[in-house]
Design a protein that fits this description.
This protein is of the alpha/beta class. Helices cover about 15% and strands about 30% of the residues.
């Protein structure tokens, strides 16, 4: 278990320390449940009353809230970011693998950098390159000609098809599949003719991909996920999609083929984006939003309807079908009315 003094933690965060810098902490916890030896944070003013009962050894909070707190305080402009960096510093998550397990099958042409760890029953194909300190969890399969940058982590049972390139410090969670065939077919008199998917997948630096997510390879060119993207569990990214830097995509979202999403976008859970569309930088989509046209300006977009009583929903569905008729009637009425002078 890691332990640091509050003085060390304050230096790490660039925070102002108010209190006893010699006290040590070893983990993080919610404000109302924290005990001695733990660090909590407060960013929501509505929870300020929890400062009176917390048993945390230190609390990360803003200056205006710290003035009323008698305990040890780490003062930051953004306590939530401070909490995240503290959690990283005190993280006790075990490695995906240690050393090279004897059951791993590694092609002789593969190149493994210094400090690489490979778990049980891993298969590594021809001409694979693993950078320094890469961790490959048990049961993972890495196809030929893949490149994985240094400090990256692949958890158990990840599958990388051939020609997947990944940058540094990426995290791929269990069960993710990168480089499977895109959904490309031609139809000849009712018979589907498969189009070989000869592109690859290119993943930037510091990308995190959730469990069960699938990223298809490009049909001719590459599917691209740029630096700093975070992608949740069970997301489908189709062939030739391009995701811009630092974009976040929440769980169960589906992207059809040849979608381009800009930088710093936030895509809520269960969104559906039709193929061959472009979404501008800085776009936010709330959960379950369906996108069927280009989004050309930054901002918040929504389309899902909220849940309601089924009987009311049925009535509203009927009325929705009558909207065009109602619109036509209103236009006729407007034209029939003589404007007042």
């Amino acid at each position: 278990m890691k332990a640091v003094s509050l003085k060390q933690l304050a230096e790490h965060l660039g925070a102002e320390l108010r209190g006893n810098g010699d006290i040590t902490v070893s983990s993080v916890a919610p404000l109302e449940k924290a005990a001695a030896g733990q660090v909590a944070f407060l960013s929501n003013p509505k929870l300020k009353q929890q400062l009176e009962v917390t048993q945390a050894s230190a609390v990360i909070l803003k200056a205006d809230m710290a003035d009323d707190y008698q305990g040890n305080a780490l003062v930051l402009a953004d306590p939530y970011v401070g909490f995240a960096r503290t959690a990283q510093l005190l993280d006790t998550t075990p490695k995906a693998a240690d050393n090279i397990h004897p059951s791993a099958i590694i092609d002789p042409s593969a190149k493994l950098g210094e400090g690489v760890a490979v778990g049980a029953n891993v298969v590594i194909g021809a001409n694979v390159v693993l950078g320094e300190n890469v961790q490959v969890g048990s049961g993972t399969v890495i196809g030929q000609d893949c490149i994985i940058g240094s400090e990256s982590i692949l958890w158990a049972n990840v599958t990388l098809y051939h020609n997947v390139h990944m940058g540094q410090a990426c995290i791929i969670h269990a069960g993710a599949v990168l480089g499977s065939d895109g959904f490309g077919y031609a139809n000849e008199r009712g018979k589907w003719i498969k189009i070989p998917q000869t592109g690859g997948v290119r993943i930037g630096n510091r990308v995190e991909i959730g469990s069960g997510t699938t990223i298809d390879r490009g049909a001719l060119e590459h599917t691209e996920i740029h630096d700093g993207c975070i992608i949740d569990n069970q997301v489908q990214i189709a062939h030739n999609d391009i995701i811009g830097e630092n974009t976040a995509i929440a769980g169960c979202t589906v992207l059809a083929g040849s979608v381009t999403i800009g930088r710093h976008c936030i895509i809520g859970g269960s969104c559906a984006i039709s193929g061959h569309l472009t979404i501008a930088d800085g776009v936010h989509l709330s959960g379950a939003t369906n996108i069927t046209n280009d989004v050309k300006e930054p901002g918040l977009y929504s389309s899902a309807t909220v849940a309601m009583d089924n009987r009311l929903w049925r009535k509203n569905t009927v009325r929705f079908r009558q909207l065009d008729e109602l619109f036509t009637r209103v236009r006729k009425l407007e034209k029939s009315v003589t404007p007042k002078e």
